[in-house]
């Protein structure tokens, strides 16, 4: 297919890269954002002539510390926490990216999830304690979707501001 005398490539006709060009593509990808080992491998395989070369390049990126799953997992943890996600949701996201959960275990244990959930609840619904069952159910659904446990949710939807200051 041509447009203005230039051939337009369909996604199936991607140019195949090898050697220095494939390595340069890996550097370009990692220069923009962090990737897990699995994500980087998948991205490079889309353009590689030789799959074995992809594995060699990815191992070199790890060796030179351009790619690091622990750094990626910690960055993802901070990002998800800033978005108001709870522990289950964060674990799910990290596992979806094929990263070992051991990299964020310490952060998961040291985070005060009651305080995080309370802050999120106040930001979304205000400080007053809901008496209407429909509003309570809405708060529970919202926090469950965000990845907080029911134990945590039931504690914070009945929590007053004075109780929060004691956390």
From TrEMBL:
RecX second three-helical domain location: 68-106
GO biological process: regulation of DNA repair
Localization (cell): Cytoplasm
Keyword presence, Cytoplasm: yes
InterPro entries assigned: RecX_HTH_2nd, RecX_HTH_3rd, Regulatory_RecX, WH-like_DNA-bd_sf
Domain RecX third three-helical: 117-157
Chief subcellular location: cytoplasm
Record keywords, A-Z: Cytoplasm
Reported function: Modulates RecA activity.
Protein name: Regulatory protein RecX
Organism (species): Acinetobacter boissieri
Phylogenetic placement of the source organism: Bacteria, Pseudomonadati, Pseudomonadota, Gammaproteobacteria, Moraxellales
Gene: recX
């Amino acid at each position: 297919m041509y447009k203005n005398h230039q051939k337009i490539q369909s996604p199936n006709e991607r140019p195949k890269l090898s050697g220095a060009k494939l390595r340069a593509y890996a550097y370009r990808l990692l220069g923009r954002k962090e990737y897990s080992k699995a994500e980087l491998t998948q991205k490079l395989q889309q353009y590689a002539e030789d799959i074995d070369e992809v594995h060699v390049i990815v191992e070199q990126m790890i060796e030179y510390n351009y790619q690091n799953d622990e750094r990626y997992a910690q960055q993802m943890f901070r990002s998800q926490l800033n978005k108001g996600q709870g522990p289950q949701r964060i674990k799910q996201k990290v596992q979806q990216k094929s990263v070992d959960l051991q990299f964020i275990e310490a952060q998961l244990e040291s985070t005060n999830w009651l305080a995080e959930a309370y802050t999120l609840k106040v930001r979304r619904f205000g400080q007053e304690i809901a008496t209407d069952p429909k509003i309570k159910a809405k708060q529970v659904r919202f926090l469950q979707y965000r990845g907080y446990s029911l134990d945590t949710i039931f504690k914070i939807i009945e929590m007053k501001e004075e109780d929060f200051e004691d956390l």
